[in-house]
Design a protein that fits this description.
mainly alpha
């Protein structure tokens, strides 16, 4: 009998899926999906893509030495394709994560959005649809291109990506309008959400750890900007100049060495920037989970 009474008392804990829970579940799902996608991209695409770019860059320097303008143009066109492939996948990864963080931030604001529960749930659904549509469409840009597009310079994938972004904007504008009503004296309707009132030890640990991670990430970024960034930019320019000069002088061995050094420099820059960004992202995620 006591078990039955306890069950009945706790039955109200699991309320219908409202806007707050939609934002929390959707945000965590987006962040998890973005992290998994980033890992897959790093393992199966990023390094192979960088290797192919280096091969075509070396072939381009050889084309300069041979005076073959057509081959030079073809190699740089291929490099452009590889850069687009990498760029769209990086954008997909970043947008999924960013929308996940934004969803968790909106979940924190939900108690102060003075709209009906039905309207708030609709805004959450619109946001999550847009947050999924935009990165998926960005991912497809490289593969769809301009095929069957009604516009000469914008493909269907870009059009749907823009539409997804519009949905996110509409949802955020609606949330801001509800927040403005709250500041004007109105109060949200429906039951009070207790999910965001946790002050337990895990919540405090996440908040402290997340704040520490963000601080470490900022300090690491400041060190990189003050110490390494200018050197990397100068070395970047010097290596590109060395490639062209060596190729024009038919010194292919030196040109190959410059290409290899350029690839190593790009890898070093990517690793340091990624470490800085991921430390801050994990800190923000810990704070939002708290």
């Amino acid at each position: 009998m006591s078990t039955l009474n306890s069950t009945l008392r706790n039955a109200g804990v699991f309320r219908p899926l409202g806007s707050t829970r939609l934002f929390i579940l959707g945000g965590m799902t987006l962040i998890l999906g973005g992290m998994v996608f980033g890992d897959i991209f790093a393992v199966f695409v990023l390094h192979q893509n960088a290797g192919q770019i280096a091969e075509h860059l070396l072939a381009a320097t050889q084309a300069v030495a041979a005076g073959d303008v057509g081959a030079l143009r073809a190699h740089f066109t291929s490099i452009g394709g590889f850069l687009e492939n990498r760029g769209t996948k990086v954008d997909t990864h970043v947008h999924i994560l960013d929308f996940g963080y934004l969803a968790l931030l909106l979940a924190l604001l939900e108690p102060y959005v003075a709209l009906s529960a039905l309207v708030k749930k609709g805004l959450a659904q619109i946001f999550l649809i847009g947050a999924l549509l935009l990165p998926v469409s960005v991912f497809l840009i490289h593969y769809v291109g301009l095929a069957s597009s009604p516009l000469p310079t914008i493909g269907w994938a870009s059009i749907f990506a823009d539409f997804g972004g519009l949905l996110v904007i509409v949802a955020c504008v609606g949330e801001l309008a509800g927040l403005g009503r709250y500041l004007g004296g109105s109060r949200p309707s429906g039951a009070r959400e207790v999910l965001l009132e946790d002050r337990s030890w895990p919540a405090r640990a996440l908040l402290t750890g997340g704040t520490s991670l963000v601080l470490v990430g900022f300090l690491g970024g400041a060190y990189y900007a003050a110490v390494d960034l200018a050197q990397h930019e100068a070395k970047d320019t010097a290596l590109l100049r060395a490639m062209m000069e060596s190729a024009s002088q038919d010194n292919l061995a030196q040109a190959t060495q410059a290409v290899d050094a350029y690839g190593g420099l790009q890898g070093e820059k990517a690793v340091k920037i990624a470490a800085h960004a991921h430390i801050i992202e994990f800190g923000l995620l810990a704070i939002l989970l708290a």
